[in-house]
Specification:
Length: 284
Amino acid sequence: MTQLTKATHSDVPTLVIRPSTGLSALNLRDLWVYRELVVFMIWRDIKVRYKQTALGALWAIIQPVMTMLVFTFLFNTVAKLPTDDIPAPIFSFSALLPWGLFTTALNAASRSLTSNTNMITKTYFPRLILPMASVLGGLVDFAIAFVILIGMMVYFHVYPGWNALWAVPVFLLLLIVTALGVALWLSAINVKYRDVGYALPFLTQFWMFVTPVVYSSEVIPEKWRVLFALNPMTGVINGFRWALLGAGNPPDLLVAISAVIAVLVLVSGLFYFRNMERTFADMI
């Protein structure tokens, strides 16, 4: 005969649910689980960008080339700003490449959530995929325009310092980190406040003039350069020019400051985005 023993309260297992904290709260592992969706969203954004356009991917060349011509005439021919002994067209174009990727990423990523309302409200997936796909999708335009820069360098007989080419992927990564960090902030804020769409053109225009796109960092007074380096795009632009053209100084403390700011923007953007993510479906 089996003897039954009454279970005491201490014998019952207790499940305690606590909110995740620290880096585990970001749940970045989901990005790997949904990696195929990331690739699909990147490909979709690229196709939508040039859908029903007569020139298609040629716009990736036309836009920076036309901007380069205007900048060369206004800032180098008329204003005669220094170009660090680099031909003015290459000096401008080498900065317009990373800057173009940055602005394209911000414009696409800022509305990535609001333009995918049906997906967000009907199915689960890491919402982080949407702004990330918008940022990474711009690499295709960057690669196309980069070929034009190589052709210009050959035409003007400007050759890179081969010992510095290793830094090009490093500064490209810094560019992506900066763009993604700002994009996370803007995309999450845009869900609640649609003012982002109105403010973004002004923001990018103002940001360009405090970034050495049309001028050399050498024109900045020494006492202001540390403040100037708090802009993470300063380190990106200077880094690209140094790695590709040999212009300016090798990476120094100012570039390190820009890199630290870029990482801080990305990490804070990740936490803010994750914190707001639970309300996207209700507010969007």
